[in-house]
Amino acid sequence: MLNSKDLLGIKELSLEEINLILDTAAGFKDVIGRDIKKVPALRGKTAVNLFFEPSTRTRTSFELAAKRLSTDVINFSVPTSSVVKGESLIDTALTVQALGADFIIIRHASSGVPHLLAKNLRVSVINAGDGANEHPTQALLDAFTIKEKKNKIEGLEIAIVGDITHSRVAKSNIYCLTKLGARVRLIGPPTLIPREIKEMGVEVLHNMEDGLKGVDVLMMLRIQMERQGKGFFPSTEEYSKNWCLTLERLSLAKDDSIVMHPGPMNRGIEIVSEIADGPRSVILEQVTNGIAVRMAVMYLLAGVKR
Amino acid sequence: MSKELMNKKDIDRALTRMAHEILEKNKGIGKLCLVGIQRGGVYLAKRLATKIKLIEKKDIPVGSLDIAFYRDDLNIRKEQPVVRRTEVPFEVTDLKIILVDDVLFTGRSIRAAMDALMDLGRPAAIELSVLIDRGHRELPIKADYVGKNIPTALSETVEVQLKEEGFEDRVILKSPSNPTLLKGD
Amino acid sequence: MRIFIRSGHIIDPSQGIDGIGDILIDNGKIKEIHIRSQEQTANIIEELQTDRIIDAKGLMVISGLVDMHVHLREPGFEYKETISTGTMAAIKGGFTTVCCMPNTFPVNDNASVTEFIKRKASQEGHCTVLPIGAITKGQKGEELAEIGTMRNEGCIAFSDDGNPVMNSLIMRRALEYSKAFNVPVISHCEDLTLSEGGMMNEGLMSVTLGLKGIPVEAEQIMIFRDILLSELTGGRLHIAHVSTEGSVNLIRSAKERGVIFTAETCPHYFSITEDAVKGYDTNAKVNPPLRTGRDIDAIKEGLRDGTIDVIVTDHAPHHRDEKLREFDMAPFGISGLETALSLSLRLVEEGILTMNQLVEKMSLNPARILQVNKGNLKIGSDADIVLLDQTREFKVETERFVSKGKNTPFQGWVLKGMPVLTICKGNIYE
C-alpha cells in the first residue's frame, strides 16, 4: 500500500514502499513479455503527460506503461500549448484536472513543481523529473534492473559517474540505493559534485581509476554540453580524458560488473561504444524495465484512496 | 465460531479422487495442463500434478496465474490487491486448461482468470477444478471437479490452510460470532 | 485634540525613562510626560479638558517604531501594495515611521518620483513616510543618481536595495559623494556572481531540494568590501539585512577596530531557518535567504552585544499569484510589517534583549541613523506612540493582514505580545 496519492520523489518513499513497487513491477514485467502486452487493470483511467522539458524516451515510456494498463493517454507538449500564451502553471494543471485526468505525469525544469501541483490538485501527480531535484521512476527502474541482474542490492558497491550537481537521476539513485543498503560512490570533477553530498552517506572520489576498483555496478551519467564553458570543466575533451568509461577503466571493476546509463548517451564522451554495446551493458534492459516499473507505479497509485 | 470441515486426510483423498476424475473425463493426459490461481490454487495444482504423474507416469504442465490486474473490483477495494507472478511456461493455444482454485464462491475470480488466460493465447477449452464449492454464485460459472460441496451463509468464511504456507492442511468454516479457531472443536 | 494616556509602563531609552506613568498629547505633539514615583498611585497630570482618555494599565507605552527598510511598491507595483495599504499595515504593526526603498517603477532615482511619493504619502499615508532614493540611476550600479537634489526633495537615505552596487569604484564614489549631504548609504550586500541563480541558502538542504544555493560568502564578501570602502571614504555606511554568522563577525571586528558604520537585521533572520523552505514553500523565499540555526544564534548575539544596531522588517509584499508558482520563478520577499514586533518581543522573552534595548533597536537607533526627531517621547516631539500588550497571544492569519501581501512563512504561528493601539499623525488606531 502506498502512503500518498502522488509519487514525488524517492525521498518521500519508505523502504517498504520501494520494495512494494519493485515486487509489483516484477508482475508487470511478465505482462510486457507476452504477446498480448495489456491488462485491463486501469481501464477507463486517463493519464496526461505534462512535459515542460523535451523528452521522447521518458514520455514514451510513460505513455506505453499507461496504455498497457488500458489507460487513455494525452500528451501535452508545452511548446505547442497555451503556456506559450502566458498561462500560469497552476492554471494549466487545473485545466488538465478539469478535463478528467486521473494521473498527471509532469516533467519540468524547476525543482518542486510536482510538489506544487500535488498540493493543489486532487489527481495523482507523478514526477517524471523536476529540475535538479529527483527522477524517482528512473531510480526505481535502475534498482529493479540491478536486483534482476545481481539478485540483491544490499552490500553492492555502486559507482555513479558524471555531473552529480545537475543530475536528478543521480540524486534519486543516491536516495534509493542507500535506502536499499548499497554502498554508493560518486565519481566526477569537483565542480560537478556538491560539497555537502557526503552527508547523504556516499563516498566522493575524483579519480576514475581509484573510484572504479571493485565496483559491482557502474552508472554513467550524461554530460550536458551546455555545462561546458561555464566554469565547470574546460572542455568535453578534457572531461572525457579523465572521466570517460573506457575498456581499460572498466577492467578495474569486478569481472561480473554491469554498466548502466539512463540515456541518451553521448558515445565517446562519457562512455565508449564498445562498452555501451558490449556484454556488460544493461542499458536496453533498463528501458524495458522502465515500462514495468511505471506500470507498477500507476497501478499502486490508483489504489490510494483520496 | 470455527469448525473444521476437512482435515489432512480428507483433503488428500479428495485431491486423489479429483485427479482420477480429470483423467477419466479427459481419457488421459494428452493436451491437458493445469493452471493454478494464486495463491491457494497454485499449491493445489502442483499437488494434482504430482498425483496425476503417479497415476499416468507422465508429467502434466503446470502454471500459475495472478489475476490481480483482471479483477473487477479495483475501484472498490480498500487496497490494491498484492501482485504475484504469472508463470505459464508453455503455449496455451490449443491446450485444454484445467483451472485450479481452492474455494469457488461468487465466481468473479474465475471470470478474471479466464480473461487472463485469453490474453495468454487461445486455449482449446477450459475446465474448472476447486477444492471447495461454497455456493452463492454471482456469475454463471460452475466447477467441473469439486473436492467438497459446502453450503454456507454469506456471513461465513471458508479458509483453506495448506502446509506449503506453513499450516496444517485443513479447511475451516468461520462464523462471525467468534472468529478464532477453538482447538479440538 | 488632547489625548491622555494613563497608567502605562512607559519606556523611552532616549530619556532613560522606564516606569509607570502618564502622557498628555496635545495637537499631535507630546505635551507632558510624568513617571510616577513609588508612592504615587494616581496620575499627576490633570485630566482636564481631554478629548480622549486611554487606560494603558498593564500595557507598555513606547514611541512608535521606525522601520528604515520597507518596500511600499508605489509607484508601479500597486497590485502588490500601495502607500495607503502599506502604511496601514505599518500602523497595525506598531510602526509610525517607515522609509520606503526606491525599487519602484519608475525607480526613485530622481526628484520627481520622490515628490510623487511624498505627495501620495501626505494624502493617503497613515504614518510618516520617508523616501529612500537610489544610489545609482535605475539602480543599475553604473552612474550616480542625483543624490543632492533628491535629498532636497526629501530623501532621507540612499540605497540600491534589491541590488548591490557591484562596481567597487562606484560604491566608493557613492560613499564619498554622500558625505556632502550627510546621508546614510544603505548597502544591500550580495556578490551577484556568487549568488547567481541562487534561491535559498547553499547547503545540504539546497542540494537535497535540488535548488541552486546562495553561499554565505556572497553576503560576507560584499560586507567586507563595503566596510573597507567606508573606512577609506568616511561615508556613512549602513549594512542592510544581515543574515549570517560570518557577517556578524566581520561587523563586530570592524567596529572593535573603530570603523564607524551601522547594520540592521530582520525578524526572519533570528526566528526561522532554511528548513522553512522544505516542501518548496515560496513564502520562505527571501533575499538574503533564511539560513541555519548557527546563523540565528549569531544574529541574536549580534543584537545583544550591539554589533547589530537596528531591527527592520524589509517588508516585501507580493501578489498571491506571484508566489503560487514554480519556486525558482517566485519573487523573493516576506510581508513583515504585521509580525515584526511580536517576533522581536521573543528576544525579550528569551533574555537576549531588555525591553529598553528592543525599543532602541526598533525606534531610537533608526531615528538617530536617519537623523530625524522620531523614536522618542520627548516633550515637543510628534506624538507617535504605540501601546503594547506583552501578554496577549494571537495566531498569525494572513487573511487578516491589512497589507496586500499575504506572503509570510509565519502563517499559523502563535505569537505572544502585540501592539494594541497606535497613535500617529493625530489619529488613534485600535
Class by helix and strand content of chain A?
alpha/beta
Q: Give the helix level of chain A as a range of percent.
A: 25-40%
Proportion of strand residues of chain A: 5-15%
Count of separate DSSP helical elements of chain A: 11
The CATH superfamily of the largest domain in chain A is Aspartate/ornithine carbamoyltransferase
Computed CA radius of gyration of chain B, to the nearest angstrom? 16 Å
Number of helices of chain B: 3
Number of strands of chain B: 8
Helix content of chain B: 25-40%
Counting structural domains of chain A, the number is 2
Broad shape of chain A? globular
Strand percentage of chain B, roughly?
Answer: 25-35%
Mean pLDDT of chain B, as a whole number?
Answer: 91
State the CATH class of the largest domain in chain A: Alpha Beta
Assembly state (oligomeric)? heterotrimer
List the uncertain runs of chain A.
none
Number of strands of chain A: 9
Q: Stretches of chain B where pLDDT falls below 50 for ≥5 residues? A: none
Label the structural class of chain B. alpha/beta
* Overall morphology of chain B: globular
